[in-house]
Design brief:
By secondary structure, this protein is of the alpha+beta class. It has one domain (about 35-165). The chain has helices at about 10-35, 40-60, 130-135, and strands spanning about 105, 120-130, 140-150, 155-165. A four-stranded antiparallel beta sheet has the order 1-2-3-4. The radius of gyration is 28 Å and the shape is rod-shaped. Keywords: Membrane, Transmembrane, Transmembrane helix. This is MSHA pilin protein MshD. It holds the Pfam family N_methyl.
């Protein structure tokens, strides 16, 4: 009688079960990785968007009473209690605290037009007097907080200080 070689039905079923478990683990890992693939892109876009807003705000005067050509505003002339526009619209904002309370969804450029490529993003701005945080008189520094919310709902907070000089 000739001896036959091969695998038995039991060995074949065990191999299929082991391979099925291994493939399920690998597919699960790929699902987690692909679900997070947009995070770096959203983070980069949030950084670019915050830089655009921050550059716009930091190029404005420190306060409404800043002298023409720049210079330090007298401490008594800075009003830390009120923020937001002084009757201006976005294209005519002239000082940093005009941006306090700004909320753009979708984000807009300095002229108030929607920025292309940022659908699903939202921007909020808060400007507060914060001199004590940096070791100067309270009214001599303003903290600018920009919060970017990406399409996945993640918030990104960016902060800068604008000083009275």
């Amino acid at each position: 009688m000739k001896r036959q070689s091969g695998v038995t039905l039991v060995e074949l079923i065990i191999t299929i079960v082991v391979l099925g478990i291994a493939i399920a683990g690998v597919v699960g890992a790929f699902a987690v990785i692909s679900g997070r693939s947009a995070d770096p892109l959203n983070q980069t876009r949030a950084i670019n968007l915050s830089q655009l807003y921050m550059d716009e705000i930091l190029t404005r005067y420190y306060d409404e009473s800043t002298p023409v050509g720049g210079g330090k505003v007298a401490s008594g002339d800075v009003d830390c209690a009120t923020g937001g526009p002084d009757g201006e619209t976005r294209p005519t904002f002239d000082d940093a605290d005009d941006y306090d309370g700004l909320a753009d969804s979708p984000p807009k450029d300095g002229e108030g037009d929607d920025l292309s490529g940022y659908g699903g993003f939202a921007v909020t701005v808060a400007v507060t007097c914060a001199g004590s945080e940096v070791g100067v008189a309270e009214e001599d520094a303003k903290r600018i907080d920009i919060t970017i919310t990406d399409p996945s709902g993640q918030d990104w907070l960016f902060t800068a200080y604008r000083t009275n000089f």
